[in-house]
Design goal:
By secondary structure, the protein is an alpha+beta fold. The protein has helices at about 5-15, 70-75, 155-160, 175-180, 185-200, 235-240, 240-250, and strands at about 20-25, 40-45, 135-140, 140-145, 205, 215-225, 230-235, 255-259. The chain binds zinc ion (ZN). Zinc ion binds near residues 211, 213, 215, 234 and 235.
């Protein structure tokens, strides 16, 4: 958007609010979703936590597992696809119920490739792979060919977005396609969420014994000359300032910092 200016502005504002921010363009098909779908994912971690976040590794593609295909996702629904948009004209300026640019591209999916992106508008949902592909009649102009040309059903778009088979969306037909099309693919969002969770695991947010603020704290155990233990919790700031004196008064080998 606006040649990346919007993204840069967002990153700047997050950083000003104290987050260390990364962004990356991910393609859902690289993570086992049967759909080519590229989206930017922005991850911000509170700067004071000093953590390193790494995006999940690709699992599918060149030298990895093969991309998942439309066939793997929706073949099983072939005899019972459930409710789907029938292309009825809902808006006066549409002649056949599809959007103005629907026929500017090949919208018929191929069984053995990942799907085209599932988008949020009912007039732009890709066509089920059965029947003949659309026929190119001019530059950016395709026509339906053969008798079998139907929009993917709700069950099918859910499966291509990698939702579990028993997942239910509610609302009008337009509303259901919109929810599914706007969703982050199930498998990809789960992988990202697990990666974020792993990155945050083990982080203790607690009260610092010195400044009494809620901070990431570390437990420090001092062993003095009489071999008695004393424990302290300190945030990064207090650790470097207040604790410094106690630290220096002890034999460094006898200071244990539990992270
Ligand atoms: Zn502190």
């Amino acid at each position: 958007m606006a040649q990346g200016k919007v993204l840069l502005q967002m990153l700047k504002e997050f950083e000003e609010k104290g987050y260390s921010v990364q962004y990356k363009l991910l393609d859902a098909k690289d993570y086992g979703v049967p759909q080519t779908r590229t989206r930017v994912f922005i991850i911000g971690i509170r700067s004071d936590l000093d953590l390193e976040f790494t995006y999940p590794k690709k699992t599918h593609g060149f030298r990895l597992k093969p991309y998942r295909t439309v066939r793997e996702a929706i073949w099983k629904f072939r005899s019972d696809p459930g409710i789907h948009y029938k292309g009825e004209a809902k808006r006066p300026f549409l002649t056949d119920g599809y959007s103005e640019d629907f026929k500017s591209r090949q919208r018929k999916l191929a069984w053995d490739l990942p799907s085209a992106p599932i988008i949020a508008t009912i007039w732009n949902i890709p066509l089920h792979p059965d029947g003949k592909p659309m026929k190119k009649v001019a530059q950016r102009k395709y026509e339906f060919d053969g008798k079998i040309n139907r929009t993917l059903s709700i069950k099918e778009v859910l499966a291509i977005q990698s939702f579990p088979d028993d997942y239910i969306v509610k609302g009008s037909l337009i509303e259901r396609y919109r929810q599914v099309g706007n969703a982050v693919p199930f498998i990809l969002s789960k992988k990202l969420a697990v990666t974020v969770k792993k990155c945050l695991d083990g982080i203790k947010i607690d009260l610092c014994s010195y400044c009494n603020k809620t901070q990431e704290i570390k437990e420090v155990i001092f062993i003095d000359a009489k071999f008695t233990l004393s424990k302290s919790c300190a945030c990064k700031n207090c650790f470097q300032t207040q604790l410094r004196t106690s630290w220096e008064a002890h034999d460094p080998i006898k200071v244990i910092i539990k992270s």
